[in-house]
Design brief:
Its EC number is 6.3.2.3. GO terms for molecular function: ATP binding; glutathione binding; glutathione synthase activity; metal ion binding. This protein is 35% helix and 24% strand. By secondary structure, the chain is α+β, with helices and mostly antiparallel strands. The chain folds into two domains: 2-342 and 402-480, no CATH class; 343-401, Glutathione synthase lid domain (Dna Ligase, domain 1), CATH 3.30.1490.50. Strands 6, 7, 9, 10, 14, 15, 22, 23, 24 and 25 form a ten-stranded mixed beta sheet that branches. Strands 1-21-20-4 form a four-stranded antiparallel beta sheet, with no helix packed on it. Strand 22 (425-436) and strand 23 form a beta hairpin. The chain starts with a strand and ends in a 5-residue tail after the last strand.
Length: 485
């Protein structure tokens, strides 16, 4: 990667990002722009169309898995001794669905499915994001930035584009995500017999920096007449109550119709230092369970979080198309889902010996963690496998590493005001879907299948962690070559 002397187009792009909320918070009174690519990534139009049609099938699969509570208890039980966080989730799931109180929550599957487009086998699923499935609004802002640069700075845009002539793929993620959530919130309020403005609750982390992506979604909902509120788990612990007809009440607000968790994927989200240390995590975890005992649309339910875990993903990849039909897919749908899933293998006492003579660059070792920093690559894999005890095996899996072709021309990434030329840029493709009780909640270009926009994250091929927020990735957009199917 080589630093590039800033030019007017780059500075204008930075200011556009700051002006339009395409930013990360750096302190209570300041922000920096989100890292971005100066020009888009190419994709074959037919390939993108296929991905857009396949993600609703994957959402249908995940929804069915998440509502098969006996299955989740059975397949997640083996990791109970190896991963304390998922042990807690599994206990919460048992309390919610096998306890004395009925779970009245209604599942709103707000999911981002991440793909890598391998140079040999094509697009394959990297992971399912069922909780804190964010960055859709930033995906739209990246597209809008590229649209702005193409018109305002055509020479610089073309210089850093992958080809001379391209057509941007529209990305109305804010509008589609807002449409799906708003329709869900209205339906819950209407079916409860209540009138008035529907209310959307976003559960957030305290003092986090990735707030503008969240606020962009809130603004989209507010334009559709939805009232939005933000609370941490600690705040909710003291502010939630039960209303008539199993409605969830928030102090000072009233009935809540839809809940979206941007927190809850790590233990620190449930820590409250002002509560007794021995029970603080348990107390805030029970706050999450309390929400699920009420008539409210929720993403992510505990069962959705379990269903989108790496362990369940590994088990689904090992099934045949015929076996996948147990989750309500037709055989053609199951074959389509099977085609999208990559290769994942369980880890056991034979894995280190098996891996010893395999090319390390062809595999990645994953645990159950969400976000960046939970994968082991290359020469670090074998020592890690050798270090495992029998209690560790079930929490890990080996995934065949995907190797997309890098951009043929050099690309330009801009991070914290510095422009850097990258000669080997590769991209990860995330597609959003929204379903409520298994039914699609969006319409796009005549399709009412739940598709809700995309997020592209690009990075140098030599970098392992490609997250925009937690890695070395940059927000990007997609383009096609006009007239080339």
């Amino acid at each position: 990667m080589n630093p590039v002397t800033p030019e007017p187009a780059i500075q204008d792009a930075i200011e556009w990002a700051l002006l339009n909320g395409f930013s990360l918070k750096t302190s209570p009174e300041s922000a920096t722009h989100c890292a971005f690519s100066l020009a888009p990534t190419l994709i074959d139009e037919a390939r993108f169309s296929h991905l857009r049609q396949s993600v609703p099938v994957l959402a249908k699969l995940i929804h069915a898995v998440s509502e098969d509570h006996d299955y989740l208890q059975e397949v997640m039980a083996p990791i109970a001794g190896a991963d304390p966080f998922f042990t807690n989730l599994l206990n919460l799931h048992k309390h919610i669905h096998f306890g004395q109180q009925k779970a009245f929550r209604q599942p709103m599957l707000f999911m981002r499915t991440d793909f890598m487009d391998d140079a040999e086998v094509g697009p394959r699923v990297i992971e399912f994001n069922g909780i804190a499935a964010g960055m859709g609004p930033f995906g739209q802002r990246a597209h809008e930035l590229h649209d702005y640069l193409q018109k305002q700075w055509p020479s610089a845009f073309q210089h850093w584009s992958p080809v001379d002539h391209l057509e941007l793929i529209k990305n109305p993620a804010i509008e589609l995500l807002s449409e799906g959530v708003a329709a869900t919130a209205r339906q819950v309020r209407e079916e409860s017999g209540e009138s008035g403005q529907p209310v959307f609750l976003m559960v957030v982390q305290a003092d986090e920096d990735n707030v503008y992506d969240q606020h962009l979604l809130e603004q989209g909902l507010q334009k559709l007449g939805i009232r939005t509120v933000r609370r941490t788990f600690r705040e909710l612990h003291d502010q939630l109550a039960s209303g008539e007809n199993h409605r969830l009440l928030l102090e000072g607000i009233g009935s809540i119709d839809a809940v979206y968790l941007r927190a809850g994927y790590q233990y620190s989200d449930f820590v409250a230092h002002d509560l007794e240390e021995a029970r603080c995590c348990q107390a805030l975890s029970q706050t999450r369970a309390f929400m699920e005992q009420h008539n409210v649309a929720i993403n992510a339910t505990v069962s959705q979080q379990l269903a989108t875990s790496k362990r369940v993903q590994m088990l689904l990849t090992s099934m045949s198309a015929e076996e996948l039909t147990r989750f309500g897919l037709t055989l053609p749908e199951a074959r389509e889902a099977k085609e999208s899933l990559g290769v994942m293998l369980p880890v056991d006492e034979t894995s280190a010996e098996w891996f010893a003579d395999k090319p390390a660059e062809h595999w990645v070792l994953k645990n159950q963690g969400e976000g960046g920093g939970h994968c082991i690559f290359g020469d670090d894999i074998l020592p890690k496998l050798k270090s495992f005890s029998s209690d560790d095996y079930q929490a890990w899996s080996l995934m065949r590493r995907l190797h997309p072709a890098h951009r043929q021309r050099p690309a330009l990434l801009v991070r914290r005001g510095e422009a850097v030329k990258v000669d080997d840029l590769i991209s990860e493709i995330g597609l959003f879907t929204i379903h409520f009780n298994g039914q699609p909640m969006t319409h796009h270009n005549g399709d009412g299948n739940g598709y809700a926009g995309y997020l592209i994250r690009s990075k140098p091929s030599t970098v392992s962690e490609g997250g925009v927020h937690s890695g070395m990735g940059a927000a990007d957009s997609l383009a096609i070559v006009p007239g080339k199917a």
